[in-house]
Task: inverse folding
């Protein structure tokens, strides 16, 4: 029977593409391969003798990767394929047409500037012209946007549009290396524009100082070659994914959290979309966002650089990219994996029977659980000023800090009793139902979850949330701390 070896694995099989193996089960065939090609064991199995998890075994079009399917007898005419996740797609084609490439010319300075690309056989003048012809949208000029925007500019992408509505703040500077201390309080897109123009004045830089919504996203991305998602919230991610899928624009996705990151390419030539992989976001407050959970400084640099690299590969048309795959990297232990993303036939945007046809008609707030549902009692809260007044007046109340211990180490809240969110239901007897209880966290979101958790656990005393969390109250705490203690 014939065993087909995918290109990336051929190095382990003396570069053979097809190997004739004696009849038997998959188990027998694998044993035959490792006997005949001693190198193959290294390629196929990990240190524990398990089939490496990026390799898929197909018999015909049937996935027989799981070891319990290895004992089923095969027919003499069955064809076996060894397919590594990394080589899933067809050979890369450029997303920039030859017509557009041919319209591009270089001057002497550009030949000098891009010399190191021109030296690479796979890029050369043709590839560099494609890069110059390309029009890329980067959504988010924060941690991931910083490397993405700067590398695209340095690589010579002709048109870069950056969308962000935020201003630069001091806490951004730890990882958002496109901004500097002098940029604090400036719009991020303005700061990004200055950096890009410093790199290369000839780049067409389009700044959109606006919040991306279902009503404006189509106008933002239509007519562009690729969209790079550098945002940090689920609402934006699903909105970007859906709009890209509906308008057939490939999406380079990136995400970071603490020490871990993910990169993937979605919606390329009818490939899977972000919804195929993650049909729904987690409930709000269930997992902290990157803003709440933090991230190590160079991590967005690693993930964003890979996003920029993937976008350039799509533009030039080289290599094997992450289409239909998800690369995960753990920077703390330096583990990385490439996972296959399957197209979900039931996907509401790209499946067999889609139900989303226009982003304008879809309620992203509701989908991401950001709306108060009608049967849920709204959570009442105090502003930092109101809470400060109550503390000064000596009003009887209990303040519960639901943050994690390492967050409290940064800034303690005077008079607060500490109960981590996971222990609340169990420790509800420590609260006094005859008294007001005020819940506080970093940004005022987990405290709402805390109140709802206690309601579900049957606690009936009056509960309030600190609006905007400790972040919003920082200045007041600093100026009053002495008096309050
Ligand atoms: Zn999909």
Result:
């Amino acid at each position: 029977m014939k065993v087909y070896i995918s290109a990336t694995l051929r190095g382990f099989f003396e570069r053979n593409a097809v190997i004739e193996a004696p009849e038997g089960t998959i188990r027998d065939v694998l044993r035959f391969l490792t006997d005949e090609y001693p190198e193959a064991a290294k390629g196929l199995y990990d240190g524990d003798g398990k089939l490496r998890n990026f390799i898929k075994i197909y018999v015909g079009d049937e996935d027989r990767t799981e070891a319990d399917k290895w004992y089923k007898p095969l027919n003499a005419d069955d064809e076996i394929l060894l397919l590594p996740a990394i080589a899933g797609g067809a050979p890369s084609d450029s997303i920039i047409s030859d017509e557009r490439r041919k319209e591009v010319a270089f001057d002497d300075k550009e030949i000098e500037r891009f010399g190191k690309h021109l030296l690479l056989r796979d890029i050369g003048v043709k590839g560099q012209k494609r890069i110059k012809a390309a029009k890329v949208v980067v959504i988010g000029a924060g941690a991931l946007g910083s490397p993405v925007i700067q590398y695209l500019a340095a690589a010579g992408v002709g048109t870069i549009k950056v969308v962000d509505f935020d201003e630069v703040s001091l806490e951004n500077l730890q990882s958002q290396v496109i901004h500097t201390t002098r940029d604090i309080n400036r719009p991020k897109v303005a700061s990004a524009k200055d950096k890009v123009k410093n790199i290369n004045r000839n780049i067409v830089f389009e700044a959109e100082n606006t919040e991306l919504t279902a009503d404006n996203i189509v106008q933002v991305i239509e007519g562009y070659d690729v969209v790079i998602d550098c945002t940090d919230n689920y609402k934006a991610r699903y909105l970007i994914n859906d709009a890209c899928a509906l308008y057939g624009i490939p999406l380079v996705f990136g995400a970071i959290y603490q020490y871990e990151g993910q990169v993937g390419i979605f919606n390329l030539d009818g490939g899977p979309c972000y919804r195929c992989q993650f049909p729904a976001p987690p409930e709000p407050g269930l997992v902290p966002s990157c803003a709440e959970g933090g991230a190590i400084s160079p991590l967005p640099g690693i993930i964003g650089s890979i996003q920029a690299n993937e976008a350039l590969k799509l533009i030039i048309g080289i290599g094997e990219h992450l289409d239909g795959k998800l690369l995960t990297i753990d920077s703390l232990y330096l583990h990385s994996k490439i996972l296959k993303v399957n197209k979900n036939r039931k996907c509401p945007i790209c499946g067999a029977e889609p139900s989303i046809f226009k982003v304008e008609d879809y309620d992203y707030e509701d989908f991401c659980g950001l709306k108060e549902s009608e049967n849920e009692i709204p959570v009442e809260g105090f502003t930092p000023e109101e809470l400060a007044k109550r503390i000064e007046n000596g009003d009887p109340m209990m303040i519960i800090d639901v943050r994690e211990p390492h967050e409290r180490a940064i800034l303690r809240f005077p008079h607060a009793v500490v109960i981590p969110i996971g222990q609340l239901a169990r420790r509800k007897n420590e609260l006094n139902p005859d008294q007001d209880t005020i819940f506080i966290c970093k940004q005022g979101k987990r405290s709402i979850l805390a109140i709802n958790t206690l309601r579900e656990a049957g606690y009936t005393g009056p509960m309030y949330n600190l609006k905007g969390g400790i972040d919003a109250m920082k200045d007041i705490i600093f100026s009053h701390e002495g008096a309050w203690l």
Observations:
- The pocket of zinc ion is lined by residues 272-273, 275-276, 344, 347, 349-350 (CB under 6 Å).
